[in-house]
Amino acid sequence: MFNKILIANRGEIACRIIKTARKMGIKTVAVYSDADADALHRLMADEAVHIGPSSSAHSYLVIDNIVQACKKTGAEAVHPGYGFLSENRKFQEALSAAGIVFIGPDAHAIYAMGDKIESKKLAREAGVSTVPGYLDVIKNPEEAVEIARSIGYPVMIKASAGGGGKGMRIAFDDAQCIEGFVSATNEAKLAFADDRVFIEKYVDQPRHIEIQVLADGYGNTLYLGERECSIQRRHQKVIEEAPSPFLDEETRRSMGEQAVALCRAVKYKSAGTVEFIVDSKRNFYFLEMNTRLQVEHPVTELVTGLDIVELMIKVAAGEALPVTQREVRLHGWAVECRIYAEDPFRGFMPSTGRLNRYIQPPESSAVRVDSGVYEGGEISMYYDPMIAKLVTYGDSRTQAIQYMRDALDHFYICGVSHNIPFLASIMAKQRFVEGRLTTNFIAEEYPNGFHIADLPPENPDILVTVAASIQRQHADREARISGQFLGHEMVVADEWVVRMNKSNHPVSVRTTEGGYDVVVNTKRFALRTNWDFGQPLLRGTINGRQICVQVERRGVDYRLLHAGTQADCLVLTPLGAQLASYMPVKAPPDMSRYLLSPMPGLLVSVAVSDGQEIKAGETLAVVEAMKMENILRAERDGVVKQIHALPGDSLAVDQIILEFENTKAA
Length: 666
Prior knowledge:
Blueprint: E1 4-7, H1 11-23, E2 27-33, H2 40-44, E3 47-52, H3 63-73, E4 77-79, H4 89-97, E5 101-102, H5 107-114, H6 116-125, E6 133-134, H7 141-151, E7 155-163, E8 166-171, H8 174-192, E9 197-201, E10 207-215, E11 221-233, E12 236-242, H9 249-265, E13 270-278, E14 284-290, H10 297-304, H11 308-316, E15 333-340, E16 342-343, E17 349-350, E18 353-354, E19 357-359, E20 367-371, E21 378-379, E22 386-394, H12 397-410, E23 412-414, H13 420-428, H14 430-433, H15 441-445, H16 460-482, E24 495-500, E25 503-512, E26 515-520, E27 523-529, E28 537-542, E29 545-554, E30 557-562, E31 565-572, H17 574-580, E32 594-596, E33 601-606, E34 613-614, E35 619-625, E36 628-633, E37 638-643, E38 650-651, E39 656-660
Parallel strand pairs: 1-2, 1-4, 2-3, 4-5
Antiparallel strand pairs: 6-9, 7-8, 7-9, 10-11, 10-13, 11-12, 12-15, 13-14, 15-22, 16-17, 18-21, 19-23, 20-22, 24-25, 24-31, 25-26, 26-27, 27-28, 28-29, 29-30, 30-31, 32-39, 33-35, 33-38, 34-37, 35-36, 37-39
Helix pairs in contact: 4-5, 5-6, 7-8, 12-13
């Protein structure tokens, strides 16, 4: 067994690998860039080596720097995690040449299976079902259009070296094909240093279901069940679960056997994932193989009881797998939510900044948190916006979902925007609860984007009760303070009005032992809690039912989050509520004459110039953030008055990029 390994990655996956290595008695070496000087993975490892500037192209993707870090520290092996160099055969070859073990497959398997074009050719030869498509390299947009027409729209344009949703576009016509080809090649070159793309038929109403495989050097190749990964946004997985609520045992076995056959065809060794697209009749087609550890591997670990990272390390050290296919059993159900630093209310734009407060839900046999951040740390613009992976496990799918809803309530993040309200909303969707999933789920359930209206409270009286009780606690404290001055005792009224989402809710609140008794619209609620001012989470019971509500003071009102609901509550006296109804509402400033950056990022290009006439739908600029290109288009016709930012500028959110002559463009 190895004495010391280096993790050629960052963030939550580096921390997760360090935990297993520590359990196995193996010392660890972290590598870090300028942006990650204070990152958690650097602090957790036994040693750490600086490998370059913040940009991944000059740090985490520089093979020589990582090889030198191994030599400097005496690391005998490297675990690549996922992303970065995890599927780069040149990296594996460089390590091998230096006498360092790559914890993963050999260079031949990485090339054959990691390359999306070559893997599809091999899959066909091995008798694996594949999606119709054109598997050779496409030279230019014109050729892409010709191929797409021959296949028939809609088509999927995909990076050959891609993964994680990078370098993928759907095209329904020639114009989208041309634009998709350009964007996909640009993203692929940026993320993988490989701009090759291919085209295949887009399957309507598909499910994305993948098989976890594991193989050693002694001819043992296993499949560890499947993962349902259909909940995606922009081809990026958001929620995963194991097993799938759709597969039957026969389909599971057939998919698993085909995945194993594919692995044996290239003498695969280590952990990997064979991804399939499955239609409504359970016909399945090979998509690609990821020759690495997957982001969503924890759900498989929970339902099988196996530590996949530990088995990868053991296989790389020359050991045989300790289990057989017959011994692989699936028990219970696991669900994973990816917590991202992004604003779902602003089109899921990435969010960067400091984590002023960061409180994870307590871990248990039912709750697991894989995270690479800590309170006070920074979310950088240079890398993927994932903050953590929240995973829950239960005896049934219903139980696992309920545990997830509770855990999301307990996950508190302040300082950057995050997608927890969006995840909680999905968990509450009846269609999700019933398991009626496709990769179009998010587009169909949120056709106009995600808004506050998508978060109706499970019971609005819950948040009204909490808001009124907080205000009563505040009033009681003021009364106690005033009572310290003779003749200045305050009498606290029981009657209040909670203004929530532009509606007034008259309430009566009385202090009692261990909490408050509240009446809302003749309904009685007994809130029992030991919450105090400054605590971001109010934990307790309402009528005996456990609750956890996130509390944020915002001036004179409170922002409360519970069960996927976000509400701003202002608690007033009855007279105050009456007078407030006469207060004028301040109109927001008119910014329609400006194109604003929707996120912090790098301005890649500006497609217009001063004085230029533009038409609705025309590309105005491209902003890159978190390794993704975002095209900003004109909403209406107009004329450009002045360019305020230049390509190469680092933009803040809502920074002005350009100004229009009139309000007909945006």
